[in-house]
Amino acid sequence: MGMSGARNRSRGTPIGSRNARAEPGLTFGPVPSRRFGRSLGINNIPPKVCTYSCVYCQVGRTIEMRCARRAFHGAATVAAAVRSRVHASLRAKEPVDYLTFVPDGEPTLDTGLGAAIHLLRSLGVRIAVITNGSLLSRLDVRAALAEADHVSVKVDAVREETWRKVNRPHRRLELRAILDGMRKFASGFPGIITSETMLVDGVNDGEEELRATAAFVGELSPETAYLAVPTRPPAEPWAVPPGEAALARAYEVFRTWHPRVEMLLGYEGDAFTAMGDPVADLLSITAVHPMREAAVRRLLDRGGASRHVVSDLIEAGLLAEVRYGPHRYYLRPVGPRRSSPRAAGSRA
Question: Among the four residues 30, 57, 111, 208, which has the most C-beta atoms within 10 Å?
């Protein structure tokens, strides 16, 4: 039985409405990251506004598909929220290795991205941006990303048909322009660039697909070429990891084009940070980072909250419970696909 299965109303006040505290903030964490250590996440894009609607996306299908940039929260607002979170983390003796722009949408859609990065420099913490690279054909986007210390670029496929199947891009995007933009950015970026290729069984894990993708990634000369698989509930239930043989093949193919290839196959761990308001922490983290049941329990315990709040949040429509493989996950409902806990659970 999941955490929502047993309830004890007498242990606390139920959460029955969407209030300011319950809404996810502009920051979350620090959370354990497979690449960035203790990463303080920056959610600079509203829920699920993206250039892609990837089949494996951990926060569901895209609600608003767009490729035109615009201002969202404002650079000063984002920077102020990050400063507050960093200072709170330090007071709680929680280390922060990276400030990472990793919203539940595409961060480069934000016209204030470069300015926000610039404003955060005074904190003295390394800054990373995780992007799908779809807007790198634009000079202003390349200039904004050049402000960062580390940029992770998604390269799931370089063949048109496969790209459209796995990433489901905005209709105005052109793959050739995207790849050219990635080459231009990689050739002039002074910081760390890494690539990530998410492998989905039967979609982009064939040998010819892998060779084409690996060859292009080799042109970017990333510090590390990461190969990943879905480890959390995906947008589409059929978007599952390839088998072990296919993963071994992918690793060997990529090694022929790049000296440093790493697999991202494991769970990051449960060391999520409680910052004094466990309900707000839970909602902020799960807006971008689905959490296993054990991680949720640990977060609530560290914040001194009773576990029945999970049931209250689900009942209020603020949290969804899904099963993926042997584990139970909790995440924020996004769009019609996860409009209710029952619907979310039925698709896992």
Answer: 30
Exposed / middle / buried, residue 2 (Cβ in 10 Å: 0-12, 13-18, 19+): middle
CA dist list (Å): 177 to 133, 135, 156, 171, 294:
11, 9, 15, 13, 43
Residues contacting 305, CB < 8 A, separation 6+ = 12, 278, 279
Q: What are phi and psi of 323, to 5 degrees?
A: -110, 135
Residue 347 per-residue DSSP state: T
For residues 24 and 20, what is the distance between their CA atoms, to the nearest angstrom? 9
Q: Decide: helix, strand or coil at residue 285.
A: helix
Within 8 A by CB and 6+ apart from 36, the residues are 97, 98, 100, 128, 150
Please, are residues 102 and 130 in contact by the beta-carbon 8 Å criterion?
Answer: yes
Q: Alpha-carbon distance 82 to 77, whole Å?
A: 9
Distance CA 87, CA 37 (A): 18
Band of pLDDT at residue 192, cut at 50, 70 and 90: very high
| Amino acid code (one letter) for 133 | G
Decide: 329 and 291 in contact? Cβ < 8 Å: yes
Q: Give the global pTM.
A: 0.73
Q: Collect all residues with Cβ–Cβ distance below 8 Å to 296 and sequence separation of at least 6.
A: 3, 282, 310, 330
The residue assigned the tokens 């995906």 is 234
Residue-wise pLDDT tens digits, 225-263:
999 888 888 999 999 988 877 887 888 899 888 888 887
- Residue 59 to residue 261: CA distance in whole angstroms: 26
